[in-house]
Design brief:
340 residues; Nucleotidyltransferase, domain 5; 2 domains; six-stranded mixed β-sheet; five-stranded mixed β-sheet; 11 strands; globular; binds 5'-O-[(R)-(carboxyoxy)(hydroxy)phosphoryl]adenosine
């Protein structure tokens, strides 16, 4: 008999539900919350409320699209953290209630593991290439920038991580500072395509080992733009494409320097990326180009699996289910998880 896993994701501002049959994706429904647009960032209180409104219709749609009934489900995987506590509470409580009602197990998933395993979302009619273990994942999102060694779907080692801002935060804050809107990553990505990445130079930080830092480069853009605006108030408008291209280039250079170093140090040639910033077209092109040059096998997740989605949570839960993991009903969500 087939195993059906329902995945639930509610860590930030996307309410999502997905269904897998024996590891194959049948449906992946995402309700992105528009309520935050006017605030230049996610408002936690509004996010929780929107999750509460969305969760029932989103799960119903995921079941309908998969062509199954709730009573067909084998287990429910849900995001326990990290994320916004009020948002996580909605998904966690919903998973518990549904698990009790159906008398089936629930399985907690670390959201970051979901991003790292995004390349394992198998779809009918597609080739479904996966990285071989061990592999390196460059995990880049609004809250994290890490290089993770993955030895199996259950074994993770953080080789390096940011000591201050996440790279997605650098994209978002700089976009806001230049008046380009939120979230900043997609806007900067789009404008960068029209600009000259060599026009402006921003210094890279010197951080030992495989750790990252993005706050210095963000501040250097801030000071540079402030000084230029003092000379010409229209400086941003006149140069926004070149500013975005140059800023994006330095962020990608910083990310790639350490990823190359990690591959050299570990001897691992299986390389993947994950998290919201892995949607960046410049980063994707660089990972592929460096991979070709260095003999890596590179795996880029499909765009729809780069930002928050329940398909990746269901996949992470499916691996845990097969390993015999079950989560007790007194589990509580956590906003931070220091390790894997
Ligand atoms: O993984 P994610 O959806 O949420 C968490 O942070 O968990 O990542 C969101 C981040 C934001 O900082 C957003 O600006 C960034 O991903 N992002 C991008 C692109 N699309 C989304 N950054 C650069 N280029 C993009 N195309």
């Amino acid at each position: 008999m087939a195993d059906y896993i329902l995945g639930i994701e509610s860590s930030c501002d996307d309410t999502s539900a997905a269904v897998l049959r024996d590891g194959f994706l049948l449906s992946n429904v995402i309700a992105s919350q528009q309520v935050h647009k006017d605030f230049g960032g996610v408002v936690p209180e509004l996010a929780s409320r929107a999750h509460e409104q969305n969760i029932v219709p989103v799960v119903s749609q995921a079941l309908d699209k998969a062509g199954i009934k709730a009573s067909d489900l084998t287990a429910i995987a849900f995001t326990r953290g990290p994320g916004l506590l009020g948002s996580l509470l909605v998904g966690t409580s919903f998973a518990k209630a549904m698990g009790i009602a159906l008398d089936i197990p629930i399985i907690m998933v670390n959201h970051l593991q979901g991003h790292i395993l995004a390349g394992f979302v198998d779809q009918e009619g597609k080739e479904n290439h996966h990285p071989a273990f061990p592999y390196l994942c460059l995990l880049v999102s609004g809250g994290n920038s890490q290089i993770v060694r993955v030895d199996s779907p259950l074994e993770y080692t953080i080789l390096g991580q940011t000591i201050d801002d996440a790279v997605g935060e650098a994209f978002d804050k700089c976009s806001k500072m230049m008046g380009l809107g939120y979230p900043g990553g997609p806007v900067i990505d789009r404008l960068a395509k029209e600009g000259d990445p060599k026009r402006f130079q921003f210094a890279k930080p010197h951080i030992p080992g495989l750790d990252y830092s993005f706050s210095g480069v963000k501040t250097s853009l801030l000071y540079f733009v402030r000084d230029e605006i003092a000379k010409d108030p229209d400086f941003i408008e006149k140069n926004k494409e070149d500013l975005c291209a140059s800023f994006q280039k330095v962020l990608i250079d910083i990310l790639m320097d350490k990823l190359i170093k990690a591959a050299r140090q570990t001897g691992i040639k299986e390389v993947t990326i994950g998290g919201g910033v892995s949607a960046n077209s410049g980063l994707r092109a660089r990972v592929e180009a460096e991979g070709k040059k260095r003999g890596w096998n590179t795996y880029l997740p499909e765009f729809k699996f780069t930002t928050d989605n329940a398909a990746m949570i269901a996949v992470a839960g499916w691996f845990r289910y097969k390993a015999g993991e079950r989560t007790p009903l007194d589990v509580a969500p956590v906003s931070r998880i220091a390790d894997y």
